[in-house]
Design brief:
three-stranded antiparallel β-sheet; 50% helix; Chitinase A, domain 3; 288 residues; four-stranded antiparallel β-sheet; Triger factor/SurA peptide-binding fold; alpha+beta; elongated; 10 helices; 7 strands
């Protein structure tokens, strides 16, 4: 009775409706509760490359593997900061190369990656190897997929190098003192054959460098001088970190690349591709 009293006291008067019509106050709306989809918390990242995250835990494991490799090479006290910088730079480059491969239309299916993994298992005890280097099977699988993409893009860059390029045939006088180089140049200017002077300084080979394309020589100032000289002429003294050079251009021609030269040009082409790619990418380094 008390309950009914309070109920009627608190209830507004109900408007009388014609018989047969429903009372709106008695028709309650159906409310479907909206359940928000759970948002996955992204894993901490070491870096983000064009929107692609490099997970922090994956980076830390790669640093551990790098340190293990250094220890195996006899470096018992590697610089940790240098190790972290080296590993992060390598991971960023791998992601850039893999992105390039995907943009070119390359992708590897689960079956293709598994087939490659099976090939490796024929030569290596994978379980022992994974335990030694701290890999799970899933991690190894995805890492292998990444490496396949990286190799594909590297090969694409290499394939863009022409089979034959302009090259110069070179011979040099290499002196380890400025006085020796000055004496050699004086002999050359007085008419002594270049070959005679070169063999005086390098009896084993006479300073013969062979045919070289642009981008092959490690000392860029020598290469620049060589490609600007006429056939049969020699340079002035060129100083470098290893000594003093006088370079003779024996011949010039468009020739097929040697295997060694192709390796060097491929290395340089990949370096140049990555430099350009970095300049045109959004790379956020998150770790210190």
């Amino acid at each position: 009775m008390i309950f009914l009293f309070f109920l009627t006291a608190c209830t507004q008067p109900v408007e009388t409706l014609p018989e047969g019509e429903p009372n709106p106050s008695q028709v309650l709306p159906t409310i479907t509760p909206t359940v928000a989809e759970p948002t996955a918390t992204p894993q901490p990242a070491a870096a983000v490359v064009n929107g692609e995250r490099i997970p922090l835990d994956a980076f830390e494991r790669e640093v551990e593997r790098y340190l293990l490799a250094q220890n195996a090479l006899g470096n018992q006290n590697p610089d940790l900061d240098h190790a972290r910088e080296t590993v992060l730079n390598d991971l960023v480059e791998q992601v850039l190369l893999a992105q390039g491969a995907r943009e070119a239309g390359t992708e590897f299916s689960e079956a293709e990656v598994q087939a490659r993994l099976d090939e490796l298992a024929e030569d290596v005890d994978l379980e022992t190897w994974m335990a030694a280097w701290g890999y799970t099977r899933d991690e190894l699988f995805e890492n292998l997929r990444l490496q396949m993409l990286v190799a594909d893009q590297r090969q694409r860059i290499a394939d863009a190098i022409p089979e034959a390029v302009e090259q110069v045939e070179l011979q040099q006088v290499l002196a380890f003192t400025e006085e020796g180089a000055s004496r050699a140049l004086a002999n050359l200017n007085s008419g002594t054959p270049f070959e005679d002077v070169a063999f005086e300084f390098k009896p084993e080979t006479g300073g013969y460098l062979g045919w070289v394309p642009r981008g092959y020589l490690l000392i860029s100032v020598i290469e620049e001088a060589a490609f600007n000289l006429a056939v049969g002429s020699y340079s002035e003294i060129i100083a470098s970190d290893i000594g003093y050079h006088i370079v003779l251009v024996i011949d010039r021609d468009v020739r097929p690349l040697s295997a060694d030269a192709r390796v060097a040009l491929t290395r340089q082409a990949v370096y140049d591709w990555l430099a350009d790619r970095r300049a045109n990418s959004v790379i956020e380094i998150i770790i210190d």
